[in-house]
């Protein structure tokens, strides 16, 4: 049997300082531990893969450590840390609330809470996807959450904060986790690639980070997939092929055709894109995003908003010089309208082709208005 361990598990952060993209939350929790100002109930909210359960585990491990460092990190050598690292800790309990959502499951948990910890100062209960609890389970949990024993700490995690009842929210310290920035994910992937002996082009890792949409766990899964496909040499071209993503170059070429008012070349390039199996609406979204990038590059103060490699950023800045601000705005409105009408349209291809023809005539329309 293979000994392969997926990167999301192999490189899961074990200390606050190694958590990616959630520095303010890590700093706040470390300060609370240092000043002995720790709440007994936390609610961690945010989208998938941003570190909610990871930070919950690190918090549980750190507060039970017998000799934490001056930097408020677990020592990894005491009895509590060793039992936690081996998965045998009796002071930390993880419960998937989505599959243990009934009132009977909650009553069992409430009974366990009364028992004192055998190792460490606290018994920590991590309830993942807590929004999955039934109304009866929530109500049964309320009293315990309001007046828990001194040795009990509850860490609730959810991707859907709006589904958690207000009476639960009012009893917790709430931490909202941010989507992780593309640059932070790409930098983290660079470190992991080096550790794994994988040679990777920066553009390839940046593309993986963008595809992950702010979720580090997704980025690591995509990275593993790309390595399986490409081997130990990740190139931008191979990653694009593996992830079935449209290359930036298609959009740059298309916008050049718009500028030249070359309808025939625009339609032929769009046909080539369809023949490669790309979805029409995703193409529209990508083209609108391209024009957004051009708009951002019209002002040097906003160029930093682009989450693309520096080489691509330079291409956007160069192409933006040939477009007037109001023409870009008209293009964005036209593409937004086409995207809205896409689902209602009976002929998707014709809808997009008409939008492309409009793009080719934008400059001409502007000149007519001036005349």
Furnish the topology, listing elements before pairings.
Blueprint: H1 7-10, H2 23-34, E1 41-45, H3 52-63, H4 79-85, E2 92-96, H5 103-113, E3 123-128, H6 135-146, E4 152-158, H7 166-169, E5 173-176, H8 182-195, E6 199-200, H9 202-211, H10 216-230, E7 233-234, H11 236-243, H12 248-259, H13 263-275, H14 280-296, H15 310-320, H16 325-341, H17 348-360, H18 362-370
Parallel strand pairs: 1-4, 1-5, 2-3, 3-4, 6-7
Question: Could you provide a short overview of the structure?
Answer:
The chain has 18 helices and 7 strands. With 371 residues, the chain is α/β, with parallel strands linked by helices.
Give structural attributes.
alpha/beta; 18 helices; Rossmann fold; 3 domains; 5-stranded parallel sheet; elongated; 8% strand; 371 residues; Zinc Finger, Delta Prime, domain 3; Helicase, Ruva Protein, domain 3; two-stranded parallel sheet
């Amino acid at each position: 049997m293979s000994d392969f361990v997926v990167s999301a598990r192999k490189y899961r952060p074990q200390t606050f300082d190694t958590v990616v993209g959630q520095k303010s939350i890590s700093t706040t929790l470390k300060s609370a531990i240092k000043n002995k100002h720790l709440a007994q109930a936390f609610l961690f909210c945010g989208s998938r893969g941003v570190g909610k359960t990871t930070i919950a585990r690190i918090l549980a491990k750190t507060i039970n450590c017998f000799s934490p460092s001056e930097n408020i990190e677990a020592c990894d050598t005491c009895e509590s840390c060793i039992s936690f690292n081996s998965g045998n800790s009796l002071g930390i309990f993880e419960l998937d609330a989505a599959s243990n959502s009934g009132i009977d499951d909650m009553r069992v948990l409430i009974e366990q809470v009364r028992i004192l910890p055998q190792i460490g100062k606290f018994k920590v209960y991590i309830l993942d996807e807590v929004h999955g609890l039934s109304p009866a389970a929530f109500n049964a949990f309320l009293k315990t959450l309001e007046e828990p024993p001194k040795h009990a700490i509850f860490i609730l995690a959810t991707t859907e904060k709006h589904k958690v009842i207000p009476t639960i929210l009012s009893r917790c310290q709430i931490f909202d986790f941010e989507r992780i920035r593309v640059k932070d994910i790409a930098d983290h992937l660079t470190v992991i690639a080096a550790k794994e002996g994988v040679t990777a082009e920066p553009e390839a890792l940046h593309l993986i980070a963008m595809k992950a949409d702010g979720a580090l766990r997704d980025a690591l899964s995509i990275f593993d997939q790309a390595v399986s496909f490409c081997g130990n040499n990740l190139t931008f071209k191979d990653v694009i092929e593996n992830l079935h993503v449209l290359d930036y170059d298609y959009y740059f070429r298309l916008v050049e055709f718009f500028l030249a008012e070359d309808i025939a070349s625009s339609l032929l390039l769009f046909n080539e894109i369809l023949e490669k199996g790309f979805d029409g609406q995703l193409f529209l979204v990508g083209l609108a995003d391209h024009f957004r990038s051009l708009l951002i590059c019209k002002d040097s103060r906003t160029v930093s908003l682009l989450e693309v490699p520096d080489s691509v950023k330079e291409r956007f800045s160069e192409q933006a010089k040939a477009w007037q601000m109001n023409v870009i705005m008209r293009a964005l409105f036209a593409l937004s309208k086409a995207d809205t009408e896409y689902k209602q349209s009976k002929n998707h291809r014709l809808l997009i082709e008409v939008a492309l023809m409009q793009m080719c005539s934008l400059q001409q329309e502007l000149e007519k208005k001036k005349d």
